[in-house]
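quick one before i forget lol
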Amino acid sequence: MLLRPYGEYYDEYATKVTELLDGYPPGQLIGGEENQKEFIALFGAILRLRNILTSFDDFAGHEILTPRQVQDYQSLYLDLYAGWRKVTTADKEIINDDVVFEIELIKQVEVNVDYILMLVRQYLEQRGQPGDVEVRATIARAVDASPSLRNKKDLIEAFVDSLTVEADVDGEWKSFVAAKRAEDLDRIITEENLRPDETHEFVARAFRDGAVPTAGTAVTRILPPVSRFAKANNHSHKKQTVLEKLSLFFSRYFGLA
């Protein structure tokens, strides 16, 4: 497949960015299903064009959108993605064919934990000085614009609040994550009356393998004993509930340390 000339891509990109800025000013909520669909389609097209344009040297410095605007739009885009997924999960339907989210394109350029920790160090250096509020806001925007980090925002903010100016950010981050992870897992074990040793082994294997095993008998071994008088569907429901909680737990902590 031959690429079109840079100028054609850029002209299309510039037109769509102008449409985006005029129709959906940064920071503005989007109401109504049709308006949301139009924004999703427009921003998705811009993401695809940016993905192509970044392969051209001429694009550097001519992005039109500032990094902050891109983060604001990505955050809104991800909010809508989360909202549409909740609706479609409730309806047990796949997202409509005319609603396509380019999440993989965002993941290709999203920030990682190392970048966030760099901003945290910068924030500590400026804490109490002019500009520290803006650095803190930059951290929040970067997290909101990241598909992988936005469900960890409360963890990151709690970590920043816990630090002193002299803190060893990297070392304390590892300790903080380990403590929170243990606390959250123990809470799930208590709530669901799971077998502690087996659950810790199950979770350790999930983090080692990069996924929570949903098939086989592994999850059955962590469940509490079932009465022989219990209904079979109760066991199935319990298993599903535990898997959902552990999957959310895994998503929250995987890749953090």
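fyi Residues 168-257 form one domain.
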